[in-house]
Structure formats: structure tokens, C-alpha cells
């Protein structure tokens, strides 16, 4: 049985449930349309810094923040469009603005659709009219995020988009990675390194970008939790970014449509014609397994 409940916590929180598989999803539309929790068989899949979440002036560290209209940061937080300079903070503004719930479904799945539309605040830093509609679908041990990006402007609209999921982990040395790329760019040193499925977690911060992906699926096996998380993503996502901090019980594996600074460089940018739209999907599957 599928259900959606609404709770008034600090923010209105929508709780999607699949009771047969003991799966739950929590979404807070007014705090950037963010997924804050995802449970499968009673186990937490996501990390959330709950104390930080209570402060509206701080970016959320946890859950699944939405990245739009840029991924990563820009040099001096600026980009130029049609000869005019604009300022955009890291990862854009979608993760900070309130989204509106437009649809709820509890037949065959639990799904919630949230919408973000351009306004005077967004147009001051990103001069386009747009509408984003994201549908979060929960069914069994799978969470799917269907996206529609719409250009309502009379001029072409460039953007990049992505997600920044924070996965909960106790012992990072027990993680094994299946990423469809043989190398990554260290975004701190700008050096390219070969990749064989393992990381050295002794560093204070790890910020690695995997490009030239050879497939539409990645996975992480957490041997301590006996959990395999699979991330499937459409071809619009040619980048995966891995990020973590030493001493923090999370790691991030982020699908991006373009690398950082693409609004300036044009690399991998999605450009929608006036009135055009595009759709994309990202799917997360959690498989809990028994020890052999």
C-alpha cells in the first residue's frame, strides 16, 4: 500500500510510504524541494546534518540537494552572458528557493511533483524565464527522480543541472566503487589520476570529477552495512562527482550534466531553444544483502 502524509515540522514535510517494502521518502518543498530522508527496510540511506538544516541561511548538508542552473562553482561566482556579467553562488539557486507541490499519486507507487518557476529574484542572477518540474517516485527499494526543464524565454537558455546526494556511511574503508570510468580529475590539484575502484580516505577533502563515462550506471557496495546502492542516470549526465570530508559520515556521488564553470566555457552545456523543454531521469536502488 502506498501513502503520502503531510507533517508540519519546522517546514511542511511530505512523507511518501511504500508499506509493503518498508520504504519511506521525506521531501521538504519549501527548503529547495529537497529530499531529506530515504529509508529502505527501516535503514537510513541518506545523511542529514539536522542541526544545520534548521538554519535557513545555511546551505543544507545532507539529503539530495538540487543543482540548477549550475553545478559546482564559478570563478569569483561570476559568468558572462550577452556581454553582461552576473553573479551565481555555488550550485545555483534551486536548492535554496521554495518549490510548489503540484501533484500527488498513491496508485501503484507514491509520487510527489514539485515545481520551481523563475521570478524576479532568479532573473536578477539568471536572465531567463523557466519552469522546472521534478517528480519523486518511490516504489519498493527504488527512488526515481523524473525531471522536466522548460525554457519559457524568447531566447535560448543555457544551463547545467544535477543532484548532490549525501549517502550515509559508517566506515568508508568498507566501500567498494563501480564507476564507469578509468580516471578522474582531482578538482583541487587539477591532476588526472587513474581509477581502479578504490580511494585513499586519509585526505581531509576529496573532490573528484569522473568524465568520459562509458555507461549509464554506477554502484557503491558498503560491505559493513551489507548494502549495494545503484545510481542509474540518463545520457544527459556525462559527469559523476565524488565528494567527501574526513571524519564525516557521508559520501556524495553526484550526477552532473556539465562540469563546473560550464556557463563560461560552454562545455557540455544544455541549451534549450525558446519554448523548448527536455526531460531526464535519475534512479537510485538500494539492495540489502546477507553475508555469504
UniProtKB/TrEMBL annotation:
GO MF annotation list: carbohydrate binding; isomerase activity
Domain of life (superkingdom): Bacteria
Pfam families per record: Aldose_epim
Stored InterPro entries: Aldose_1/G6P_1-epimerase (IPR008183), Gal_mutarotase_sf_dom (IPR011013), GH-type_carb-bd (IPR014718)
One BP term from GO: carbohydrate metabolic process
Name the UniProt record assigns to this protein: Galactose mutarotase-like enzyme
